[in-house]
Specification:
heterodimer, A: 89 residues, alpha+beta, 5-stranded mixed beta sheet, 29% strand, B: 601 residues, 25 helices
Amino acid sequence: MATIRYFGSIRDVTKTMEEEVPGGRSVRNLLSVLESRYGETFSPSEKPVPVAGRLILLVNGRHVQHLDGLDTYLSDKDVLSVFPLLGGG
Amino acid sequence: MKYGKILRVDLSSGKTRTEEVDEKLARQYIGGRGYASRILYEELPAKTDPLGPENILIFATGPLTGTSAATGGRYMVVTKGPLNGYIASSNSGGIWGAELAKAGYFMVIFTGKAEKPSYLWIKDDKVELRDAAGIWGLDTHAATDALLDAVGEDSAKVSCIGPAGEKMSKIACIINDKHRAPGRTGVGAVMGSKNLKAVVVKGSGRVSAADEDAFKAAREAALKKIKENPVTGEGLPAYGTAVLVNIINGVGSYPHKNWQFAQMKNAEAQSGETLAKTYLTSKQGCFACPIQCGRVTSLGDKSGEGPEYESIWALGSSTGVEDLKPITEANYLCNELGLDTISAGSTVAAAMELYEKGFIQKEELEGGPELKFGSAEALVYWIEKMGKVEGFGKQLAEGSYRLGETYGHPEFSMSVKKQEMPAYDPRGIQGIGLNYATSNRGGCHVRGYTISPEILGLPEKIDPWEIEGKAQWVKTFQDLTASIDASGMCLFTSFALGPKDYANLLKARTGFDYSVEEILADGERIWNLERLFNLREGLDPEREDTLPKRLLEEPIPDGPAKGKVSRLKEMLPEYYELRGWDTTGFPTKEKLAELDLEGLE
C-alpha cells in the first residue's frame, strides 16, 4: 500500500491526516480518485487553475515536478504528501 | 512635506536636533534599510568598536511606513553589529514604526552613550531623554508597562531591550510592542552599550501621499492581490509561518540536532497544524496588515505571541526538543529577556553538541541540567540563563561561534559570518546556501528567500538540488528584498506582489517616478553599499563568503536529500560575476559608477 499524507488546510477537506491506498498507479490517477472522494481540491485538471497553482505534491519528499509530474508512478511503500500552496519564513 | 524629519539624539550630551531628509538620497535609497545604511557608511569611522559610544544606532522607517499600504508599518534598526563587526540591519513589524512615522520622523539617529540608563520619549515634536532608573533591569514586558505608566500615555508605543541587551549579549534583540522584534545581528546589545533602555513614541499626525488618488488606487490593487493570493490570503492567516515545519521536514531539509541530521521523526508534534490545535488562541496582525500571520498563544499560566517557524525550529528541531510546550516557553523567555530566537536556540544546540562530544564538562554547568539533545528541561533553563547573562549563560550569550571558539571548535557553530543560520539546510536547497554565504548581515534567510521558488514553487518551481540559474535567483531576490525592506512594507507581501506594485505605491507616496527598473537598481545599490561597509570593516570574501564545513563536506545522512552537500563553491563565481564584482568578491569601479556609488570604495 502507498501512503498519502495531508497537511495544512487540506486536512479540513479530508478530515484525516493520513491514509493508505493501493499503489501501482500514477499521481494523476490517484488525484482523480481523491477528487471523487473529497471534491475539486484534488482535481488533476490543469484548468481553470493549474495543479501547481493549488497543491504542492511530494513523492517520497521530492516535488513531482522534478520527477515525472502527474505521471509520477506510485509504488507500494511510496509516500505522497499533499500540501496546499503555502509560504512563511 | 515628502518625508518626516531626521531626529538626531546625542546620548552623551542629551542634546537633540532635527534635520531635513536629503531627497536625492531618499530617492536613491528609498528609506529604511537603504537610507540608514548610507548614513552609517558616511558617518561611522571604519573599525569603530560596535559596543563603544562612537557607534551609531539608527531606527529608520520607510516612505510607506505609517501609511495605509498593506503591511506599511515596518521599521529597521541599522548599526554596526557586535556579533560579527559588519553591518547590522534588522527589520520589525508591530505598530511602533508606524507610530514613529506618524510622530513626524523618518528616522532617529543615536550617537554617544548616556551617562546613566535612559529612555527617549517622543511625543510628536516634543523629544525628551529621560532617566530609566527603576526600569533598567526589567524584562521587555514589564519595562513596556512601566514606560507607558511613566509617560502617562496608554496608547504610546515602546521599543525596548531586556536584560540580554542591557548586559550586551551579542545575540540580544530589541522588542517592540512586546512581541515583535528587530531580532537579528545583536542590535539589542548596541542599545545596551549606549545605556538606552527604550524609545517610547506617540504620534498624532498622518503620513500623507504626494498623490492621494493614485496612492489609494495602488493601495487597493495591492490589497486585492494580497487577499486573493493563496499564501497571504489563506495559508499564512490560518497557520502562521509554522505551516512550513512539515514541508521543510518533508523535503529533508529541516536541520536537526545542530545540523547533524536534516529530518526529524515527529515534526508533526511541532508543526503549525499542531500549534493551531493546542496553544493557539487567536491570530494577530501588525499595523495595516491584512495577512495576520502572528500567533497569540497560551500555555495556561502564561501567554504571549509565537512561536514562529524559525523559533520552533531553532528552539525545537535544532536542539532535538519535539514538544511545543517547552519550545513555546523558551520562545516567551526569549521575547521577555530580549534574545534573538534563531541565534539563542542554535547556540543551545551547538552547546549540546559540544557537551555530548565531551568538550563542555558537566562541572561547568554549575548544577544546571545537562546539555543533552532533546532535553526540554535544559532548553528552558539555559535560555533563561542566557537571557539573564548569568553563570554559564554568559558564555552562551556570546553566541555559538564564540562559544565554539572557546573550546577550540568553532566548526560546531552553524553560522555564517558568526551569525547562526536559519531553518533550511542548504545541502538539500542549493540556492538558499548561496544566499546565506553572501548575506551582508551573516547567516540569514530574509535577505534572499529562495525557498519561495525552490520549495514552495513561487513564482515558479525550480529544482532545489540543482545549481544552474541559482546565482541569478539569489541576486534578484536579494535586490528586491532590499527595496522592500527600505520601503516600510513587509517581505511577506512579495508572495503576492511584484516590483511593479511596490513601484506604484512608492511613486504615489513620494511623487518620484519610480519604475520597476529603478526599484531593482535601488535594491542593488543598497546591497552594494552594505557590501562596501563590510569590506571596509575588513571582510575577507575568500574566507567568509562561505558556509560551515559540515554543509560543504558532510553529506546529509538521512531523508530525501541524503548524500547531498552544498555546491556553494560552484555557484559563487557566477554570483560575483552577475553582481559586477571581481573574482575576489570586490565591486568593480564600473559597477560602483553604474550605481552612483563612486568614491565609496
